[in-house]
C-alpha cells in the first residue's frame, strides 16, 4: 500500500511537472479528487453547492448536482443508513456532512489507497478527524440504531433485496451499545476512513465556514510535505 502511494505521488509530481503549466505550487499537487463515481477529476469552483455542502463551493470535487443528490436521494450510493429504523434528523445531518466531505473534499489526496469497487477505485484511510467533530457526531447519533458496527463497503449486510438490510443473525441496537466510545464509532463506521485525533494535532473539520476558506487545505498540505520528505529522506 505504502509503496503504491509513494509511487503514485512521485508519478503525479513528475507528470505534473512535465505536462502541466498550471501547477505551480505544492498545493496543486494535493489538489486532487478521489477517483469515484461522482467526484470530478480535479477540484474547482462551483457556482453554488447545495445546503450543507456549501462550504466547499470555492474548491470542490463535487458538482452542484451531486451536492443536491446526496441530500435528497436516499439512499445515496445505494447504502441505506436507516437499516434498523430512520436515523434521527440530527444524526442524519452528521452523516450528510460526512458525505459532503466524501464527495466534495479536495483534501484527501495524501490518504488515498486503491480499492476495487463499483462506486470507486480509491478510498481514503486514517484521515485525521478532529476529536470535537467526532464527539458532536457521536452525541447526535448515540441513541440511534444499527446492527453492524462497520458499514464500510456495505460488507456484512444482506443485499438480497438490492438494498442493505440487517443480516438475520444480527440485532438492532443503540449505537451506544454497538460502539465502545465516540472514537470507536467514528473510526469503525466507515472502516477506518477516519482516525480521531486530539485538537492539538493537525486534523480535519467536516463542519466549517467556507467563507473564510477551507481549514483542511493546510492539513492536507502538511501531510503531502511529510510524504514528499519521506521520498527524499
Ligand atoms: C490550465 O488552466 C486553464 C485555464 O484555467 C485551463 O483551461 C486548462 O484546462 C488547465 N490545464 C490543465 C492541464 O489543467
Ligand atoms: C475494510 O478495509 C480493509 C482494507 O482495505 C478491507 O480489506 C476490508 O474488507 C474492509 N472491511 C469492510 C467491512 O469493508
Ligand atoms: C437475507 O434476506 C432475504 C430476503 O429478505 C432472506 O430470505 C434471507 O434469509 C436473509 N439472509 C440473511 C443471512 O440475513
TrEMBL record:
Keyword Signal: yes
Alphabetical keyword list: Disulfide bond, Signal
A Pfam family that the UniProt record links to this protein: Folate_rec
GO MF annotation terms: signaling receptor activity
InterPro entries: Folate_rcpt (IPR004269), Folate_rcpt-like (IPR018143)
Leader sequence residues: 1-20
Folate receptor-like domain location: 32-204
Source organism superkingdom: Eukaryota
GO cellular component terms, semicolon-separated: external side of plasma membrane
Family that this chain belongs to: Belongs to the folate receptor family.
Name of the protein in its database record: Folate receptor-like domain-containing protein
Amino acid at each position: 500500500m505504502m509503496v503504491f502511494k509513494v509511487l503514485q505521488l512521485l508519478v503525479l509530481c513528475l507528470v505534473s511537472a512535465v505536462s502541466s503549466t498550471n501547477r505551480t505550487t505544492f498545493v496543486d499537487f494535493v489538489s486532487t479528487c478521489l477517483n469515484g463515481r461522482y467526484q470530478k477529476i480535479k477540484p474547482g469552483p462551483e457556482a453554488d453547492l447545495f445546503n450543507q455542502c456549501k462550504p466547499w463551493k470555492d474548491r470542490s470535487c463535487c458538482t452542484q448536482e451531486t451536492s443536491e443528490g446526496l441530500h435528497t436521494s436516499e439512499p445515496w450510493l445505494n447504502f441505506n443508513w436507516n437499516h434498523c429504523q430512520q436515523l434521527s434528523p440530527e444524526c442524519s445531518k452528521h452523516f450528510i456532512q460526512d458525505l459532503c466531505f466524501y464527495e466534495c473534499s479536495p483534501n484527501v489526496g495524501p490518504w488515498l489507497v486503491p480499492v476495487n469497487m463499483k462506486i470507486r477505485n480509491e478510498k481514503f484511510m486514517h484521515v485525521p478527524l478532529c476529536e470535537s467533530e467526532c464527539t458532536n457526531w457521536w452525541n447526535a447519533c448515540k441513541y440511534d440504531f444499527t446492527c453492524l458496527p462497520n458499514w464500510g463497503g456495505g460488507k456484512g449486510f444482506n443485499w438480497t433485496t438490492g438494498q442493505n438490510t440487517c443480516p438475520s443473525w444480527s440485532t438492532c441496537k443503540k449505537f451506544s451499545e454497538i460502539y465502545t466510545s465516540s472514537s470507536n464509532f467514528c473510526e469503525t463506521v466507515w472502516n477506518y476512513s477516519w482516525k480521531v485525533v486530539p485538537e492539538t494535532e493537525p486534523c480535519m473539520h467536516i463542519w466549517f465556514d467556507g467563507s473564510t476558506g477551507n481549514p483542511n487545505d493546510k492539513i492536507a498540505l502538511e501531510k503531502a510535505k511529510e510524504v514528499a520528505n519521506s521520498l527524499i529522506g
